[in-house]
Design a protein that fits this description.
This protein is 21% helix and 27% strand. The protein has 419 residues and is of the alpha/beta class. Its EC number is 6.3.5.-.
């Protein structure tokens, strides 16, 4: 078994099954990993292998790839692609089938050569983390890197990001970064080594949008399950709504900003956007991290609210039921929070629709306790917005601004509502 190298094409026979594929790197010495013709990887326990047959000896992988010689095109805009991790910024080594991070401009262009027709690309790594490990500290780092790139001449920014928390980062940057350029976050639901990968089309579409004369923070992902169009979403109006589908990201209580056809290199705007031809930027990375998000459920123990209050939290977002309700059994805990000066705000867990705490007595009583309504904000958006406001203002001013539309997070009149 030890006579076979990474890149070799082999057949493995076990007691019940036969596998054929190319040997890939493995993090476990007891497992042989192969990439099969289907594009999927298989890990086989060495103790269960009866026989290995060599089909073709592969070339020894060469990880030292010579740099590309690409001259700058003065007719194209300069786009910086900042990588924070995730599968969208990756390339496949076809000798081994392994997927490697694509951080430099050369890496990105090798992975997606179509980018050369869209813009002059500068690639830079900011982070290399799984997006579930994203933190407010990392949001600040990303904002600071955006500022550097714009001041160095970038006409637009693309941020390669893991999909699990991409909508949180998009929201945070919406409040922290005021730039006269497009800032576009992009991810992939399926990695570059899979035949159904959405990475290339998403990255192409995001880069197209980053060359436009629009301002704001956006998310680009597949607009349909097939390889047809991608959608441009506002960073404060989007949520990951499915765990696996390629069109997982949806605009909530809104419609996508634009539809992108990466094949025809066309962008069709579905709503009006502020246009700009400047490259000004200023950032404000002040955040109050002691803000909690609490989801209401039947039988919830109100002491969870006391826990946050007693541990110095400045704000609490409640993800209430329906139009913005909680069980009466936790009213005293909520009063304890507001009496201690904690800012408490109500959102809804229904995804679509608005909060309206004036319809039923429960909502009216909560308002008497000092709870404010977040009306047309997703819980994640309300959480990040409260962090931003409490990081820059006192509690009373933050309370006043929670329901003021700052960066497009509130739709004044929604055609999706019906009370």
């Amino acid at each position: 078994m030890d006579n076979y190298d990474i890149g070799d094409l082999i057949t493995i026979e076990t007691e019940n099954t036969t596998y054929t594929g190319t040997i890939m790197p493995s993090l476990n010495d007891n497992i042989i990993v192969i990439k099969m013709k289907s594009g999927y990887n298989a890990g086989i326990d060495k103790n269960k292998i009866k026989l290995i047959k060599l089909i073709n000896k592969g070339e020894k992988p060469n990880y030292k790839i010579p740099p590309l010689k690409i001259s700058e095109n003065n007719n194209l805009k300069n786009i910086s692609i900042l990588s924070t991790g995730g599968t969208v910024a990756s390339r496949v080594d076809y000798n081994t089938g392994a997927v490697h991070p694509a951080f430099t401009a050369d890496d990105l262009i090798r992975a997606v050569p179509e980018l050369l027709d869209i813009a002059n690309i500068n690639g830079k790594v900011v982070l290399n983390i799984l997006s579930e490990n994203m933190t407010p500290t990392y949001w600040k780092m990303i904002a600071e890197e955006i500022e550097k790139e714009v001041k160095n001449g970038a006409d637009g920014i693309v941020i390669a990001h893991g999909t699990d928390t991409m909508h949180y980062t998009a929201c945070a940057l919406s409040f922290m970064v005021d730039a006269d350029i497009p800032i576009v976050l992009v991810g992939a639901q399926r990695s570059s080594d899979r035949p159904s990968s959405d990475a290339a089309l998403n990255l192409i579409s995001a880069t197209m949008c980053a060359t436009e004369q629009i301002k704001g923070v956006f998310v680009v992902m597949h607009g349909e399950s097939g390889d047809t169009v991608c959608h441009l979403h506002r960073g404060v109006k989007v949520r990951k709504s499915h765990s696996t589908r390629r069109d997982a990201f949806k605009s909530i209580n809104s419609i996508p900003v634009a539809e992108i056809n990466p094949f025809k290199k066309q962008i069709k705007y579905l709503t009006e956007l502020e246009k700009t031809n400047k490259n000004n930027i200023k950032i404000n990375t002040n955040l109050e991290e002691k803000v909690a998000l609490i989801k209401i459920y039947p039988g919830i123990d109100g002491n969870v609210i006391n826990y946050y209050v007693d541990n110095g939290y400045k704000g609490i977002i409640i993800e209430g039921t329906g139009l913005g309700h909680t069980p009466e059994t936790i009213f005293e805990n909520i009063k304890y929070a507001t009496d201690k000066g904690v800012l408490v705000a109500m959102t809804t867990q229904t995804i679509n629709g608005r909060v309206n705490m004036n319809v039923y007595s429960n909502g009216r009583e909560l308002q008497k306790l000092g709870v404010i309504s977040c009306e047309d904000m997703l819980p994640e958006v309300a959480l990040v917005k409260m962090m931003h406001l409490l990081g820059n203002y006192d509690t009373e001013k933050a309370k006043e601004l929670m329901n003021k539309n700052l960066v497009g997070e509130i739709t004044e009149i929604s055609r999706f509502d019906s009370y």
